[in-house]
Amino acid sequence: MSAMNRGRRLASILVVASLGLGSLTGCETESGKAAFVGDTTITEDRVSQVYDDAVAKTPTPEPAPEASGSPAPAAELPVTRQEVVDLLVSLELARRVVKEKNMPPAKEPTEPGEIAQALAVSGDSEYVKLWAEWLDLQTVITENTPRAQLTDEGIMKVYNALAESGAIEAGLPVAQVREQFGAAIFAEAAILVSTSLGAEAERTDTKVNPKYDPVSAPMAVGTQQGPVFYNLPFISSDLVTDVSS
């Protein structure tokens, strides 16, 4: 796959929507549960499995020269347990949507090695493999869901999430945001996915451990400097207008 196609794939905004996820009870929390999606339980052990594997398979950067004999700062880990939970919950919801609506598989499945460098984790780690599956699922949902037109509130949700990550200037009015976003295809795709997954989260009564609440969707948007990763808060399905024929 060409570098341009890899960039387009990473430029897709990934988003999950849920309307008020519930929290686990104290008993469920004590028993090591991270989240419930329908009859699927995401345990703390499962989170640790993905997280520990990602940390163990993080490429070691070249050590920076020490300044005035001071110890070099510790290397920043490329993933957190929160990000693992975000990914696992988003994946489970997306898998269910695709299965229930009998959507076809991705035409060009993402190879983990194609996105490993951007994620700063080895391509043979489970974390990167799950990310590759997540990219494919959001593409399938986008391609097989009637297109929608963003409301002002919807486009500002996407914009504010980008601004919070530092990827774009904060505080712009909606008219200027729409001008900068242009056709806003990436944001429209985000809302298409968010609407589908939000309905699924409601249907399955998805719940998360309070320490991981709120769960957000892991996302990536392409820039000239490379992909920018950030999280988008849950978005309500009323932020789009169906314009399909």
Automatic annotation (TrEMBL):
Bias-annotated ranges (Low complexity): 65-76
Domain of life: Bacteria
Stretch list, region Disordered: 56-76
Stated name of the protein: Lipoprotein
Species annotation: Phytohabitans houttuyneae
